[in-house]
Amino acid sequence: MKRTSIYAEGFSHKNPIPAGCRIGGMLYSGSIQGTDPATGAYGATLEAQCELMFEHVRRIVEAGGGTPGHIIKMTVWMNDRSQRAALNVPWLKMFPDAASRPARHTMQGALDGGKLIECDFIAVID
Fold first, then answer.
1. Does the structure show a pLDDT above 90 at 13?
2. pTM for this structure?
């Protein structure tokens, strides 16, 4: 199977790496932050960064040929894991059905450069 780099409008990394990579039905994202798609600046608040991050998740999975319904696992890093309530708002918007949500693991991390949150995901696209 051929590896395909995934690029998404409004999201990019500073380093020469794609937003994600797909082989067959497996799509893995790289690190996704809560940045403004027009300016690249981090959202001013944790809530803003969470919303922006989930917008990028949607763009990346769609650029890879899938939908949020194909996401099987998300890993999230936060500066302050006790603030998961801010993360749960866009999480519940993207995955409202309790019987059909991906697995998620949220960890505390010392994020740099104004990042308050970041994630990656794995999707299985048929």
1. no
2. 0.96
CA distance 28 to 121: 6
State residue 17's pLDDT score. 95
Tokens representing 89 are 């708002």
Query: Distance (Å, rounded) from C-alpha 93 to C-alpha 91?
Result: 5
HEC string of 19-72? CEEEECCEEEECCEECECCCCCCECCCHHHHHHHHHHHHHHHHHHCCCCHHHEE
| E strand or H helix that includes residue 123 | strand 117-124
The helix/strand/coil state of 12 is coil
Of 47, 104, 103, the closest CA to residue 80 belongs to 47
Q: What does the pLDDT read at residue 36?
A: 96
Answer whether 74's CB lies under 8 Å from 120's CB. yes
State both tokens at 32: 């996704």
